[in-house]
């Protein structure tokens, strides 16, 4: 079971429950912990630092860790270095590429919905959308040359309330 990927204690106990008695499972898990093969704290840190978690909010990651049997203390320790604002921006930039050229208001709404589904709070979402708007303004100025010639309403792509 551990040859394919590392597992949490909860996952390991669940997988072993069908085939082994409780006493055998307890003994095996205790031995694996002693040898360092099962370490929930290290597993949580690896999960939060992993690629999949880079575009998710701490609140969503916390729920996922708790569902995998990680203790609240280990989850809090693993999430202590996670910052939602850069994660929200990373997720928004990635999603923006997938949205292509659709109506700016529809794009903003879809980005808000997308970030909300990833657990980001309003502050992180607004910060990410404001940064995208700034990036778009600076790209427009670089590509068009004279910013006074562009229509300022075109750059209000991500404004609006939730």
Features:
2 domains, 162 residues, mainly alpha
Structural write-up:
With 162 residues, the chain is mainly alpha-helical. The protein folds into two domains: 9-79, no CATH class; 84-155, no CATH class. 64% of the residues lie in helices and 0% in strands. It has helices at residues 9-17, 22-35, 40-49, 58-67, 72-79, 84-99, 104-117, 122-144. Helix 4 runs antiparallel to helix 5 (72-79), helix 6 packs across helix 7 (104-117) and helix 6 crosses helix 8 (122-144). The relative contact order is 0.10.
Distance between the termini: 45 Å
Order of helices and strands: HHHHHHHH
Domain module tally: 2
**Total count of strands:** 0
Helix content: 55-70%
What global shape is seen? elongated
Output mean pLDDT: 85
Beta-strand percentage range: under 5%
Poorly predicted tracts of residues? 146-157
Alpha plus pi helix count: 8
Measured on Cα atoms, how large is the radius of gyration? 22 Å
Sheet bearing the most strands, described? none
Structural class by sheet pairing and helices = mainly alpha
């Amino acid at each position: 079971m551990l040859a394919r990927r590392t597992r949490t204690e909860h996952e390991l106990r669940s997988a072993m429950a069908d085939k082994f008695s409780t006493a055998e499972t307890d003994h095996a898990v205790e031995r694996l912990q002693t040898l360092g093969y099962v370490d929930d704290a290290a597993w949580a840190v690896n999960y939060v630092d992993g690629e999949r978690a880079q575009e998710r909010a701490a609140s969503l990651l916390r729920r996922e860790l708790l569902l995998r049997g990680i203790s609240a203390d280990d989850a809090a320790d693993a999430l202590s270095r996670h910052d939602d604002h850069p994660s929200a921006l990373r997720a928004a930039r990635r999603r923006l590429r997938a949205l292509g050229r659709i109506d700016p208001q529809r794009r903003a709404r879809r980005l808000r919905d997308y970030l909300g589904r990833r657990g980001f709070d309003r502050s992180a979402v607004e910060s990410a959308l404001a940064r995208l708007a700034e990036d778009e303004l600076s790209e427009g100025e670089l590509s068009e040359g004279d910013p006074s010639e562009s229509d300022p309403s075109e750059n209000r792509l991500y404004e609006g309330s939730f």
